[in-house]
Every structure is written in C-alpha cells, then in structure tokens.
C-alpha cells in the first residue's frame, strides 16, 4: 500500500515545480541578453510577466499555507535538511504573500520612472531633477521594509538586505565594515608611498583577437571545472537554470584583461551554482545562500586566484603563446605590479581592491540612514560628499560623479551594496582557509590544477545550499565568523609585502 | 465609470496569457535545438513539463467553463472575429478538458517505449519486435480518437487529423487524394519516358563554404520578407514565439541545394507566422489555420517559387558569384532538369514532387483503416506492400524500408501525414491563384521582387488566422475548394511541358 503524500511532500512538489518555472525564466533571461532580436522585447516582456504571475499565484494558493502549517506541526517526522527546507519554504511563501499587490505595482512604476529620470539627470549632474522620483522610491522602499521587518522580526534595513543575503543582518557586518573604515586611511597612505617609490608598470600591449580570447576563456573555465556554454555579452553574467548554468564573458580586442577577469569571475559564480547540494537542487534549501556568498565564490577566482603570482606563472606562457606577444612587460612581476595600482577615485566601478570597500561602506551607511528615516533625500548630496571625504579624503566636483553615479537606488536595489564587500572579505577568508587546509595549494595553482581548491569550496560552501546561515557557513569553513582582519592581512601582503 | 470586464473579455485575458506561456515554451524548444548543452536535457524536460502543467491547469479552471457558457449566451454582443475567437476558445478548452489525465500519461509512456523500440527494430527490419509497442500506441490512439470524435461530432480518423488541421475532414481531401492515386500511374509512365529520352543533368559541383551558404540563406530570407534570427540545425525548422519567430537552416559543404531548399521552406513558414492577423496575434482565432495550410506556405516558396525558371534566372548569377562556380551545368535549364528528376523510391523522405503524394496516400489509407479497426497491426506489413505496389508498382524487400521507415506512428502522430500532400496541393493552387491575380508576377520573380506575392499571401491566407476553415480559406483565395486538377496541371507543365 502506498501512503498518500504528506503535507511536506506536497510542498516539495510545489517547490520543485517552482524551480522548474524559475529555470524557464532563467533561460528566457539568458536568451534576452544573448540571442533575442531587439524587436522581440515586447513579446518577451509578456512571456516573463505571464510566468511571474504564475509563480506568484502558485504561492498564493491557500493549500500551500495549509500544508506549511500542517508540516510545521509535524517536524518530528522530518530530518535536518527537510526541516531546513521547510524553514526556507515558509520564508519564501510569507515574503511573497506579505507584499500587497498595489505596493509591488507602485514600486514597478516608481522604479521605471526613477530609472528613466536618472538616465537624463546623471549626465547633467542634476540631482534636483532626480530628487522627487527618488523620494517616491524611498517612501515605497520604507513601506516594503516595514512589511518585511514585521515578518522577519528584524530591523528595517536588515529586512531589505535580507532580500539579497537571506538571514544576514547588519549586526553581522557593521563592526567589520566600521573596522575597515578605521583602518583604511593609514593603510592607504603606506600603499601610496610604496607605489610612488616603485617604477610604473610596463605596458603589456598587443593585438588580442576576440577568437583567441574566447578560446582562452572557454579553456580556462573548463579547466577550473565549469561545464556549459560561454557566450559573449556587453556585461558578463552567470545565468541560465538549475541543471543548465550558462556564463558569458566580454571581449575587447584592445584589452585582454577584461575578458580574463570576467571569465574567472563568472566561472566562480557558475561553480557555486553547479556545486549546490545535488539532492536538493530543486528545493529552496538547495539554493545558493545569497548574493554575498555568491560574490565570494566569483571573487575567489577573480581576485584571489586570478592575481596570485603562482597562477600568473602558469597563465602567462599560455597568453604569450596564444597572442604571440612578448617583451619586458610580460612577466609575473610586472603583471602583479599592474594589478597592485591603487588610486583614490570618485567612481565605484573604477575602484581598485583596496578602495572599493570604502565606496560600499559609504553607500551602506547612507542607505541605512535613509531607510531608517535619519537622512532625507534632500540631504543626500551633502552627506555623500562628507562621507566620501571621511573615507577617502576626496570630494566630487559635482553629483554626477557623486551620489548620482549608481543606478541601484533609482532601480530599487536598497540593501544590495554590502554584498560586494562582504563577498570580497569572505573570498579572502575562504581562500586563506583553503591555503591552511590544502597542502601545496599554491604549487597546484602554479601548475593550473584547480581540483583540490574547487573540491574544498564544494565541501565547505557549495554543498551547503541554504542549510547554514552565512555566519554559520563561514565558521564551519574557516573556524570563525567574518573577520576584516583576514582581508586586511591579505591586502597588506599583496600591497605592502 | 468603467464597466467590469465581460466574460468574453476575461477569456481574452486568459488566452493572451496562454499565448505568452506558449511563447515561453516555443523559445525553450528553439533553445533545446540550437543552444542547449546535451547535459541540460533533464532540466529542460522539467521546465517544459512544469509549463505544460500550468497550461493544462489554466484551462481546467472551472471559471473558464463558466465564462465560456456566459459568453456563448451573449454572442449578440460580439463582432464576427470575437465570435470566431470564442468558437476557437471553446474548441481548445473542450479538447484539453476531455482527455483523461491517465490516458495522456499512458500515451506519453507508450510513445516513448515505441520510439525506443523503433530505434532498434528499424535497422534490423524487425517488425515483430515493434508490433506489441505499436499495438499499445494504436489502442490508446483509438481511445483518444473516440473521446475527441464525441466532442467534435466527427469520425474517428477525422478526430485525429483535426489535431493537425483543425476543422478539416477526410471528406475534404479523400476524393482529391483518390483522384491523384488514379491519375498517377499513367502520368508517371509519361514522365519516365520523357526522362529516359532526355540527357542526364550535368553536374553542378564546387566548394560551397558554409559561411557563404549562410549569408545567402540570411539574405534570401530577408529579401523575401522574413525578419528574425537564422541559425543552423541538423533539421531545419521554424519556431520561437509570437512576436519572436525564428528559423533555422542546415548547411552541407558539399551540397548547396539543401540549404537553399530549407531556407526557402522555413521562410515560407515564418512569413505565415509573422503575417497572422496583428490584432489577434495573442488569441486562438489569430493562430495559423493548421499544419496543412502552414505547409502550403512553405511549399509555395520551396517548390513553386524555388523551382520556377524565372526565380532561378535571378538566383543563378548570385550563386555563381557567391561561390565562384561556373561551367556548362550552371544554367537555368540544367537546374530545372535536375529538379525534374523522378524516381519510384521506397522511401518517403527521398521521394520527388510527383511520387511523394503516393507515399502519403498509402499512409493515410492504412492509418485510417487501423484507427477505424479495419486493419490490425499484425496485417500492416502485407497491407503496406500491397498498397505501395498498387500506387507505385514497387515492393519493399523488407519492412525496414517498408512500414517501419517512419517514426510518426510510434511517436503517436496519427492523422498527420495528409498535411504534407494537402500542403503541396494547396501551394500549387495558391500559386496559380497568385499568377492569375498579380500581373507580371513571373517578371517580378525574375527580378527577385517578392513584395507583390507576399502581399497576396498576406491578404489571402495569413491575415485570416483561424477565422475561416481551410476549405473556406481556399475558396476565398482561389475561387474553389481543394482541386487535385490544379496540382496535376502544375506537374504536367513542369514535368512534361
């Protein structure tokens, strides 16, 4: 006799189907950016809207709420992973059900209005033009934060950050970010002094035909352990679906470094997606922990491995052979020197490894203050300029290269910025953990052997999905929670060592 | 004051959403055949199954049945197109709701079992090995036919054919097919006699680099009027979504003819999809009439235009220039002679324009007899061999090149075969109609001008969607229902003229 499925089992079916539909959306999104003719955009928008409506309706089904309650009343029947999965299902469903449809709709309108205004205001450095639209975005964000904070039992800013790194809280990173901000000015001075004393890096010019860059990108991603498509887009990304992860890279004939960097970066993301717990691939507990942990995986390859002298030792001869380039600039030492150039810049996306966190810390402090009602949009430009002066000692000549530079806030991405620096710090901490645990890791990188490192990441990060919190994951992998000291030690080695 | 939406308007929303979800499925299908890594097949199968379940559930919603009844009670409020749309909605919903889920599931299993068995049985010409699986397929098909016949109020075979050419009936084509079968033996003898008296066609050899073939294919499709992607696949197809039609072609370095033929063919399909009534694109009444009319559009370009001497006059210099080929074989007259070669072959897919209908007529007669219970699977090989002898005077040495040659029956495609020949006959009739209506059409083809012909097809076929039946469409376009005489006259001109 077959038993009828339990409430928990019925939920697993619902969420497996949800994952399949999200996979369909993922492929459509990939197609939009790689293959779709522009003229098909309206048709694609209808497909995406129809699928999103299906996903929303699926969770609004009252039976889902009943099954959740029933399963939660019988957790003794479940094992640890099933219980963790049930917790994630509850989270997904409650957040989806909580937001009133008219708030979601108002946000969609406000974001597209603010985004459009930003496109004309930014080139003119006209903050006043964006202000009303941004005020509307913030007002709606605060409503959203208030609803979510009630469900999650956390602060307003926490509630927004939770949308990008579920379960992670300001308390988990504020001390770490503040410590970095305190440490940075002194460190930066030392780095600049050393840089001034060093000769400038030699050029590494040449012709880098796209076909060759593409072959290198594909070969490198495959060698590291990624299986799947590698396509070309203006902005590289990792997307696709569960079971069909796809990365893109960007290729610039005059600059081989962009494609190398973006290939390593997206390969790191893809390895995480492909290494999620195989038995839980279709279930919420099997999803990637969040964007911060995701970024730690991409930055492990992009910034830790990709700038490691032993890796460069292995890579350099291949680049020289592939592009027929050579000369005094084509040495590991010179590549390292290039990678080590530091500059106090106004623009986040142009910032180097050392100053990038200052840009993130500035934005985090400002957006938290705005969400908590301690800072008005009207006062943002002044607060921005003052904050940047405090962190990096520079001041924007106008708001176009100041508080208007990013699209995140107009688009409604609030609470997102910290994931960049959390990712960078975790990458340093994880890579240090791997160095501690894997004998001969640096020699392996010198031979282009990535198996042991990828195996370690699979074991310590990928296979845990959402079973552990971000904090638990780091402790389990490296013996301690997020520690700015590890990142700082890494920077000291790389920039002063 | 805004009135609440009527039942009919609510149905339009449901079906527009359905079209968007079908579009998502169309893009996933295109991706499966052009872009998807093989390893992603299981993930894709889950996405497709999840979407198909959504589509099924959408129509099973009891509100849809209520709205249909309500709208049908108030058709006085609707205009002609809305009424026709309501008729199509009713048809789609009733057919979807009628088939018991366990029958659909049993069919899916039976088809995949029969397909797998066929793959090993066919190379060994072992009909006995396929027989049990095929008997199961037929038994389930007869169940399906019986359910559908009850809803449509038609014969068992009609009910299956209706799945491919909705509304079309055996009575619409049986006399035409029978007339062709009677006329063929005498005609074939005359063609063979002429062919024996003519010199063999000269070779048109050369090197045809894929890149050049691709450029020609893309340029030709665009010149005829298609807008969208052209990709490469082993088997060419036209797919994608409403608003995002995509075609593929196949390229063989040794054989430029394959890509020319498949590009013309798929361009014809794509023009139909892109020319459907713009105001009804998302609604059932705006869909393509059926596979037979679809095939008539592809064959208009592939067989009517593509082998017309005036078109070849325009095309030939371009081919010579593109591939740097020349010589005595590269003349319009020789190309026509090549296209005119006729041979009594055992294999449908290798058959020429003249004998192809005989293969279709054989299959139609046999499948109708099987569905109606007048022929057992056990007796199929003998009936096949006897039928082919009657039609073409040849007999297969074994079942591998006889009744085992096609995958249609194991896959559950019963009632499909007639659409091939219906398409060929309609293409001849429509092209003759265009010749009658458009002054100077042949001169236009000689200059590579396709606008007037495409405009005529848009006006007479494409823009009607499913508003008219297949029969009404042909009468409206050409003044009469399907007439084997027009196709026969075309063959007489081309093969004996």
TrEMBL record, chains A, B:
Cofactor info, note text = Binds 1 zinc ion per subunit.
Main EC class of this protein?
hydrolase
Cofactor(s) essential for the protein: Zn(2+)
Q: Which domain of life is it from?
A: Bacteria
- What are the BP-aspect GO terms? proteolysis
Q: Does the keyword Protease apply?
A: yes
InterPro entries membership: Peptidase_M32_Taq (IPR001333)
Keyword Protease part of the UniProt annotation:
yes
The catalytic activity, as recorded, is: Release of a C-terminal amino acid with broad specificity, except for -Pro
What GO molecular function annotations does the UniProt record carry, in alphabetical order?
metal ion binding; metallocarboxypeptidase activity
EC number(s) reported in the record: 3.4.17.19
Write out the entry's keywords from A to Z. Answer: Carboxypeptidase, Hydrolase, Metal-binding, Metalloprotease, Protease, Zinc
Q: Where does Zn(2+) bind?
A: 265, 269, 295
Report the transmembrane regions from the record: none
Q: Name one Pfam family in it.
A: Peptidase_M32
Q: Where are the active-site residues found?
A: 266 (proton donor/acceptor)
- Give the family from UniProt: Belongs to the peptidase M32 family.
Function noted in UniProt: Broad specificity carboxypetidase that releases amino acids sequentially from the C-terminus, including neutral, aromatic, polar and basic residues.
**What protein is this chain from?**
Metal-dependent carboxypeptidase
Q: Which classification does the entry list for the species?
A: Bacteria, Pseudomonadati, Pseudomonadota, Alphaproteobacteria, Rhodospirillales
